[in-house]
Amino acid sequence: MSKTSPSSAALAASERSGEAANAAGATTPGPRPLVPDSEVIALPRRRSFTAEYKRSIIDQAEAAQDAGAVGLLLRREGLYSSHLATWKRQRKQGVIDALTPKKRGPKVVVSPLVKQNRDLLAANERLIKKLKNAELIIEVQKKVAALLGNPIPNIQIDEEN
Description:
The chain is an all-alpha fold and 161 residues long. The chain has helices at residues 8-24, 51-63, 69-77, 81-93, 112-147.
């Protein structure tokens, strides 16, 4: 080995000593980015196909006569053979909605009692808001009447709880 190029053992030792220095709190000069990375990374998104598109691809695949024409169609459209097989199977099953995209995720079933309870609570909140507004208007009317010299008497209404 030559003296000008450090050996791998020497590099490993220097890295370890650098790690020990970092653990002790020392900072090591490293390459600093001059400009922050401003690249926008696109998030992956699941593709969805319309029923019309699926039907057209199936029709084109069935009309393909030449060897490799189906593969060419799939490559051109960016599809997999499993797409074609699944769509054909769904069409063969005769399900009306088979070629429309399905909503993913668990099915949410809401009990009729829970729905009724939510509706009644919403109606109750709406009525409470309306009552507060009406009471505020009545208070303003009382103050205006008192300023004009014709006070409105306070009448207590029995509230049933």
